[in-house]
């Protein structure tokens, strides 16, 4: 059993700081979301990253749909 599975406040601050940097946020979010929650050291960060990516993907798809319809 891993003893360091709960994220501290410092871990969350580092996570949020990394997610505010352009392009780094996408890379970090994809990397953290691709980790297996059963084996990674911070499963809450993995779950959080998956929830960050979901609205991002939805907004990109919707923007392509709106852009495609506005060009017709």
- Overall SS class: mainly alpha
What is the number of domains?
Answer: 1
User: How many β strands by DSSP?
Assistant: 0
Distance between the termini: 57 Å
Tell me the Rg in angstroms: 16 Å
Strand content: under 5%
SSE ordering: HHH
| Average of per-residue pLDDT values | 88
Describe the structure.
- The chain is built from 3 helices and no strands.
- The chain has one domain.
- The longest helix has 28 residues, at 43-70.
- It is elongated, with a radius of gyration of 16 Å.
- The chain is an all-alpha fold.
Short description:
With 72 residues, this protein is mainly α. Helices cover 69% and strands 0% of the residues. The chain has one domain (9-70).
Write the layout of secondary structure elements.
Blueprint (H helix, E strand, L loop, with lengths): L8 H11 L4 H11 L8 H28 L2
Helix pairs in contact: 2-3
Defining traits:
single chain; 72 residues; mainly alpha; elongated
